[in-house]
Specification:
The protein has about 575 residues and is an alpha/beta fold. The chain has three domains: about 300 residues, Rossmann fold (3-Layer(aba) Sandwich); about 130 residues, Domain 2, N(10)-formyltetrahydrofolate synthetase, CATH 3.30.1510.10; about 80 residues, Roll (Formyltetrahydrofolate synthetase, domain 3), CATH 3.10.410. About 35% of the residues lie in helices and about 20% in strands. It contains 20 helices and 25 strands. The strands form six sheets. Strands 1, 2, 3, 4, 5, 6, 14, 15, 16, 17, 18 and 19 form a twelve-stranded mixed beta sheet that branches. A four-stranded mixed beta sheet has the order 20-22-23-21. α7 crosses α9.
């Protein structure tokens, strides 16, 4: 008998489903993988040696390629990963071979408010416990590789302070003369820890390091994670790690991980992490889990390597981008597709009546507090007004030359009239639309969505990038602000403008992609501006250079690379069954 998601928590459904999940050997045989291509991690999950698979299947036709994005969400999320998994299950119900790629759960949201991002109800990725906590250690490897760069930098600064040039030479070192006010990275950890945003390190004597201001960022926002997401292979990852800029010297020249001679050791930490993890949906379809979330402060994409694998092993491959089309899809469109050479045959925009009501002027939605009555009773006026946000996201996807599929992710309180109003508005805007109930019914509830996606993948489209890679950075930022976010223009702090001009003037930077940092809670930089804001400008306060990843990272508004933990975090409800060792409360 099918579990009832209205009566059980997600972890309870996952726990029940895990009792009958496919052994990893059966799953990989059904995918057509050979024994030598599998790196088992216990009985229920594995890493896949992508080099062997791609060497064997390199000339095979690729699958239909689908990206899942969304509208601007409420702080609770709108079920984008649930929809991604439900779509894969729905395609399976149509008799189609489908794979997927989702991003690995970060400890930050898992133990804070948003949860594991493993799906929900009857559309989940299992086994849930390993997925949610550590998995095969990829994020730990990213954290350690990142922090090793900081160890190398701070130790070098200490030794250069304590030794003269001749003493350094005896140790095989040359003076790098790092400017302590121009250190470009911080320490990393995979939790939301606002207390560590600004710290002072190296306090004590000359043996206790170099004293300076520092701080922490969440691991998934690290340039190392961006490199893992976009690397084509281990050689590409190794080259990119070596180009990472960790600081500047007192003459303004970059100091890289290669200058610190730590690049090889960093790459060694990632030698296994580059292989994607293989898990499965509740209904037994293969799911690659690789790279990290947070498209508001990072690239926020499942990895290029995972997508290359998926498109060789199935009829349809579904990948996931973080947050709304303004953030996640824009980066998928203009960064990931450009680097991977893969272009989407369909793009899904996940919308909920709840979020549309919020964008239509409904009361604030706050994690941990009950929803206001406007969200649980019919209100067509709020829905229709809020659809302005949906229309903005439809326009974003259409600007890439692809006709979007709007998935109306149905909640139990949605009324038929509200769902029909959203469908009508989406179709009038030129999108396909489908109501989906994957949370409640699994693949069966996503058949209508799967059929719409299959239709979209067979339509002709002319995929095009928003800008040429040779376009100056300042022009690119303006294009993204105006054409994607709907801004009237862009303003810069003096320091940010100087950095933009320096990037445009410095031909040694190569063709840097543009990875915007912006709130996910609004099309604008201001999380309080809901709907489709008009009459505003995008303020750029800083620009980071991720030379290894090949990205310029403009930072808009008041957003931080280290999120904070809320007053009622999820860790209060997570525990372990001491008899079985199974994790409860995820």
């Amino acid at each position: 008998m099918r579990p009832d998601p209205t009566q059980l928590k997600d972890w309870q459904i996952a726990e029940a489903a895990e009792q009958s999940m496919k052994p990893i050997g059966q799953l990989t045989r059904e995918m057509g993988l050979e024994h030598s291509e599998i790196l088992p991690v216990g009985h229920r999950l594995a890493k896949v040696d992508f080099r062997k698979v791609l060497a064997r299947l390199g000339d095979r036709p690729t699958a239909r390629y689908i990206d899942v994005a969304g509208i601007t969400p409420t702080p609770l999320g709108e079920g984008k990963t649930t929809t991604t998994i439900g779509l894969i299950q729905g395609l399976g119900r149509l008799g189609l071979r489908a794979t997927g790629a989702i991003r690995q759960a970060s400890g930050g949201p898992t133990f804070n408010i948003k949860g594991t991002s493993a799906g929900g109800g009857l559309s989940q990725c299992i086994p849930l416990g390993p997925l949610s906590i550590r998995l095969t250690g990829d994020i730990d490897c990213v954290t350690n590789a990142h922090n090793l760069a900081m160890v190398a930098l701070t130790a070098r600064m200490q030794h250069e302070r304590n030794y003269d040039d001749s003493q350094l030479a005896k140790r095989g070192l040359r003076r790098l003369d790092v400017d302590p006010d121009r250190v470009q990275i911080k320490w990393a950890m995979d939790f939301c820890a606002q207390a560590l945003r600004q710290i002072r390190i190296g306090r004590g004597g000359i043996r206790d390091g170099f004293e300076m201001d520092s701080g922490f960022q969440i691991s998934v926002s690290s340039e190392v994670m961006a490199i893992l997401a976009i690397a084509q292979d281990l050689a590409d990852l190794r080259r990119r790690i070596a180009r990472m800029i960790v600081a500047y010297d007192k003459q303004g020249r970059p100091v890289t991980t290669a200058d610190l001679e730590v690049d090889g050791a960093m790459a060694a930490w990632l030698a296994d992490a580059i292989n994607p993890n293989l898990l499965q949906t509740i209904e037994g379809q293969p799911l690659f889990v690789h790279a990290g979330p947070f498209a508001n402060i990072a690239i926020g994409q499942s990895s290029i390597i995972a997508d290359r694998l998926g498109t060789k092993l199935a009829d349809y491959h579904v990948t996931e981008s973080g947050f709304g089309a303004d953030i996640g899809y824009e980066k998928f469109w203009n960064i990931k597709c450009r680097l991977s050479g893969l272009v989407p045959d369909a793009v899904v925009i996940v919308a909920t009546v709840r979020a549309l009501k919020m964008h239509g002027g409904g009361p604030a939605v706050r994690p941990g507090l009950p929803l206001s009555g406007e969200y649980t009773s019919e209100n067509l006026a709020l829905v229709e007004k809020g659809c302005d946000n949906l229309l903005a996201h439809i326009d974003i996807v259409k600007a890439s030359g692809v006709r979007p599929v709007v998935c109306i992710n149905r909640f139990g309180t949605d009324t038929p009239a509200e769902l029909e109003r959203v469908r009508r508005i989406a179709e009038q805007a030129g999108a396909l639309a489908a109501v989906s109930e994957q949370w409640l019914k699994g693949g069966e509830g996503a058949i209508e969505l799967a059929e719409a996606v299959v239709q979209a993948t067979h339509e002709r489209h002319a995929f095009r990038f928003l800008y040429d890679i040779k376009t100056p950075l300042k022009e690119r930022i303006d294009l993204i602000a105006r054409k994607v976010y709907g801004a009237d223009g862009v303003t810069y702090t003096d320091s940010a403008l100087a950095k933009v001009q320096a990037i445009d003037d410095d031909h040694t930077n190569g063709d840097l992609g543009t990875c915007m940092v912006k709130t996910h809670l609004s099309l604008s930089h201001d999380p309080d501006l809901k709907g489709r804001p008009r009459g505003w400008v995008l303020p750029i306060r800083d620009v980071l250079i991720y030379k290894g990843a090949g990205l310029a990272v403009p930072v808009a508004g008041d957003i931080n690379l280290m999120p904070g933990t809320a007053s009622d975090p999820a860790f209060r409800r997570i525990d372990v069954d001491v008899e079985t060792g199974r994790i409860r409360g995820l």
